[in-house]
Amino acid sequence: MLNKDKLARLNALANKAKAEGLSLSEQKEQKELRQEYLGNVRSSFKNQFKSMTVMDREGNDVTPEKVKKLREEE
């Protein structure tokens, strides 16, 4: 995840954008921070998804092939 300072800055820029608008440099900074944030969220979700195992009522592994392939890639 983003460190606290970057997250606070992203939130401040979002609030300023709603209240009064952003300069071009602030818009660029906001876009970069958003991309970094989204990259971290996607990576975290993918890691959680790869560690998932699905079992049916009989105890058989029915994990989707897509998840198994993600595990094999690493």
Structural commentary:
By secondary structure, the chain is mainly alpha-helical. Helix content is 70%, strand content 0%. It has three helices and no strands. It has helices at residues 4-19, 24-50, 65-73. α1 packs across α2. It is elongated and about 60 Å long. The two termini are 21 Å apart.
Question: What distinguishing features does this structure have?
Answer:
single chain, 74 residues, mainly alpha, elongated
Query: How much strand?
Result: under 5%
User: What structural class do you assign from the helix and strand content?
Assistant: mainly alpha
Shape: elongated
Cα distance, first to last residue?
21 Å
Order of helices and strands: HHH
Helix content: over 70%
Count of individual helical segments: 3
Q: Could you tell me the number of beta strands?
A: 0
